[in-house]
Amino acid sequence: MTVLKLAFCSHEAAKYSTSRWHYSRSMPKSKIVRVGVWEDDRFCGCVIFGVGANRHLSSQFGLPPTEVCELTRVALAPGRKHPTSKVVAIALKLLKRQSPGLKLVVSFADLAQGHVGTLYQAGGWYYVGNSDQSYLKIHGRIVHPRTVYDRYGPGGQSIAWLRQNVDPRAERVAQAAKLRYVYPLDKSMRKKLEGIALAYPKRGRGDTSDTPGFQPGEDGAAPIRPLQSTAADG
Predict the structure, then answer these.
(1) CATH of domain 2-132+177-231
(2) Which of 19, 52, 97, 202 is the most buried (most CB within 10 A)?
């Protein structure tokens, strides 16, 4: 039997995971909760929750910011015994135990990466529509508006200001829509979401767990307060 363990992990272990097994190859910039994943004591990735890039995320659901977070990264090595949906489900239980005031977790499937949310559909999340947002092109690089805000302040939200102070060729760039999925952490929120949930988009060729191969011989930090389950070998 293969033993699955999830526990809070170090920043270094999370960074290792995202740099190897997540298509962004980057760590979120906001405050985060890092949940490590082990199979038979072998580190095989992490699940990361955080504030997210959208500062107005909670207002869309009539909740204060302290009651909503975003699932920002699922960075897991391929070849695991346990499905990604099960890993995320246990990570959500850990999150709820650590932060009992949370009512909702939000995440996005990136159509530009060929994802339609297979992971979230398997985990029983609610699909509530698309999130359309333009990005900014500065010095030839496409960056998220939140990154620009963090770097330049409120002025960074204005193309005129960016062209005058940062890059005369700065421009907005349309991006493919992202599919918004939400997971309630209490009964009242679940009832509310049942009234606005939409039919799942058709399954695509991947989900957020699509990642390159595991680098052997480089395990992460030791588990702390693990949640455990087992899966048959084979």
Answers:
(1) 3.40.630.30
(2) 52
